[in-house]
Amino acid sequence: MKRLKIKVTGRVQGVGFRPFVYNLAKALSLRGYVLNSSKGVVIEVEGNRVEEFLQRLKQSPPPLSDIERVIVEEVSPVGEQDFRILESQEEGSFTHVSPDVSVCEECLGEMLDKTDRRYLYPFINCTNCGPRYSITLSLPYDRPNTTMRIFKMCQKCQSEYDDPTNRRFHAQPNACPECGPSLSFRLINKAFKRCVEEDPLQSTINLLNSGAIVAIKGLGGFHIACDALNERAVEKLRERKRKSNKPFALMAASVEIIKRFVLMDDREQELLESNRRPIVLMRKRPGCEIPEVVAPGNRYLGFMLPYTPLHYLLFYSPPGSPENPLFKCLVMTSGNLKEEPIIHRNDDALERLSGLVDAFLFHNRDIFMRVDDSVVKKELFIRRARGYVPEPIVLPDDGPEVLATGADLKNTFSLTKENYAILSQHIGDMENYETLLFFQEVLENLKALYRIKPIAVATDLHPGYLSRQWADSQALPVTYIQHHYAHAMAVVAEHGLKAPVIGVVFDGTGYGLDGRIWGGEFLWVDTEGFQRLAHLDYLRLPGGEMAIKQPWRTAVALLRGLYAEETEGFLKRLGFFERIDLKQIEMVLSIAENEQFSPFSSGAGRYFDALSSIVSLVDFNTHEAEAPMALEAITLDGVDEVYPFDINEETIPMVISLRRCFQRAVDDYLQDVELEIIATRFHNTMAALIRDTVMRLKSRKGEVKEVVLSGGVFQNSYLLSKTFEYLADTGLKVYFHKSIPPNDACISLGQAYILRERLKRGMNV
Ligand code: ZN
Ligand code: ZN
Ligand code: FE
């Protein structure tokens, strides 16, 4: 007989770990105890089958757990008679909080079983599934510390909750139709009065069947939904919600249905079906029935599977009954106004969304932490939120507690503690008061949940950023970190890289040390600082911000730089005068050389903008990166040509000129070369100049072995894979983000990491 003391760390609390241990120990006739401690779960088991216990613990832990380490120690047997779950020891340092997860198969089975007491109950959940982060008010994760505290469990629910052998043992959101949350319906547009029945869910289905727009309260906030195959309904929604071409997310009941609309590989299917349930961007099937207005000019459609019981019920017709939901696929876009955060409270929704929707489907389980849907494109994160946050990013070693406030676009913040960084969910663009409030709300919550007291704060160098002004207003020492340096260091942090590396950062906008806008950067980085080794040549942005919204401005300025007095002739042949107001063009030409009105930018994104307008794809961006996405959308496989470019090695930093590239692209366009070919050659050129520049830097910096890639431009899948392909020849190891987005959402991690490493080394910050 043997007795083992086992410590398990990782996400092992609030995920059914103790009952799992209890049942396993009982099954193997072991004695001892299990308890939650500050560092994880502590177990002592005694008996003949302790080795088997250990093996099964490691091999098949509860679905929601995520074991980091198991430490085993043999102790002397004490001759206990029973196995017990002991009261938690006092909570200490780092306690993992589980992200929200989709409803499990077992709960779904019960929900669709006529004889089950939770038949068709939209809030069914168990220890292995359901809401977590979004309903957690504080730790420890117990019912009184969740928004479920207002619902008193009925006898039946309580006895499940108390029974260690039950799947709902200590399932904090446990509920049933008798004691738990319920739905309610509110009609706004009287034109749909005939659709309303007593049952809120059926009323919602009726409205959606009739082409109405309905706000539906979900897990992390409200969605605005309509039948995605009803073109008029989607047009109406686009008109009411946003007057831009930004794509809408979609939800369908099964992978089989989604496959009718997109090309899906095994990896994409796996992501769709994972219990994190992100929106997965997949290539549209040629001739697919989803109306163009869902994602205008886009090569991808973003789909997710249902993730709450309520979502499943929206698509469900009981077997044998007539088809009830006639829709096959729903638009499910975030319930918010313009660029404000997602709305999560019933009264707020009613007040702010009534002008957008025909009805509301409410429920009365409060959302405490709002959290948007996550968006991924294969291995690439576009938005990291529901299902992933607040899962920490594991850093190589321990360090002090710091805060980093990120950048203003696609803002996230990061907190560090021990060997973890907690990256907040997607906060949004810091351009309005609502978003700032959301930032503070999430920050206060994560600081409290993880018991973090930052001793210093890192932020972007940009004096105009709200995220920086906020940092400046705190009573903490502030460190300013250049935007692209933070980008590169985010990759370094994720991969735990040590030596200095070359960072290739291609994005749109970041404040540079010279006060100009940077964004096509080759940096030499480590935690102490960075050097700008090379960059794309500066372009002029006539009208500054206006040029980012209107790529034709950048295009005209670029053409002027190429053709001087011949510019007008070229503009004419390229069709600019047919598309853009003559006065506007003249105005842009007149300010193009004036730095005050036409700031310099080395942003890689601006080069994509310019080409997109030159070949008359997109002259006006109605949402971020529309012009570059339109170019990516027409790239072809199997085109290998590259346009010429020049790297000026005389200067420090080196400057990469795309003049000859653009001259050739213009020639091609005027000679009616297919747009697809031009777009592909241009992408290849970008990848080739990255390779050639990196090669030159390598020959100068002999000791370099690693390259990291970051920046929103690498959301372009064609460019990313070409860059990897070309860099394979350089003999360098290439790293890219693995669990956070390459866009500005990653900035806060890079900032936090730099600050924390500097503090560790006692550097003055
Ligand atoms: Zn379940
Ligand atoms: Zn109940
Ligand atoms: Fe950036």
Structural features, described:
Strand 21 (457-460), helix 12 (466-472) and strand 22 (478-481) form a beta-alpha-beta unit. The termini are far apart. By secondary structure, the chain is an alpha/beta fold. The strands form five sheets. Strands 6, 7, 8, 9, 10, 11, 12, 13, 14, 15 and 16 form an eleven-stranded mixed beta sheet that branches. The protein has 24 helices and 31 strands. Among the domains are: 2-85, Alpha-Beta Plaits, CATH 3.30.70; 183-375, DHBP synthase (Alpha-Beta Complex); 535-686, Tetracycline Repressor, domain 2, CATH 1.10.357. The longest helix is centred in the last third of the chain and has 26 residues, at 675-700. It is globular and about 90 Å long.
How far is the N terminus from the C terminus? 56 Å
The largest sheet is: 11 strands, mixed
Low-pLDDT runs of 5+ residues are: none
CATH class of the domain at 183-375: Alpha Beta
In helices, the fraction of residues equals: 25-40%
Annotation, overall tally of beta strands: 31
Q: What is the averaged pLDDT score? A: 95
Give the second-level CATH assignment, the architecture of the domain at 183-375: Alpha-Beta Complex
Shape: globular
Number of helical stretches of at least 4 residues: 24
